[in-house]
Amino acid sequence: MTDRRNLLAASSAALALPALIGRANAQTAAPAGASAPAQAPGFYRFRVGSFVATTVWDGFAARQNPGTGWITNADQAAVEGALRDAMLSTARLDNPFIVTFLETPAGLTMFDSGTGGQLAPTAGRMRENLAAAGIDPLRVTRILVSHFHGDHITGLTTAENAAVFPNAQVFVPEVEWAFWADATNESRVPQAQRGTFANVTRRFGPYQGKLERFAAGAEILPGVRAVAAYGHTPGHTVFHVADGTEQLFVTADTSSRPELFLRNPGWSSIFDIDGPAATASRLAIFGRIAGERARMTAYHFPFPANGFIQRMGEGFRFVPADWSNAI
Amino acid sequence: MTDRRNLLAASSAALALPALIGRANAQTAAPAGASAPAQAPGFYRFRVGSFVATTVWDGFAARQNPGTGWITNADQAAVEGALRDAMLSTARLDNPFIVTFLETPAGLTMFDSGTGGQLAPTAGRMRENLAAAGIDPLRVTRILVSHFHGDHITGLTTAENAAVFPNAQVFVPEVEWAFWADATNESRVPQAQRGTFANVTRRFGPYQGKLERFAAGAEILPGVRAVAAYGHTPGHTVFHVADGTEQLFVTADTSSRPELFLRNPGWSSIFDIDGPAATASRLAIFGRIAGERARMTAYHFPFPANGFIQRMGEGFRFVPADWSNAI
Question: N or C terminus of chain B with fewer C-beta within 10 Å?
Answer without folding.
Answer: N
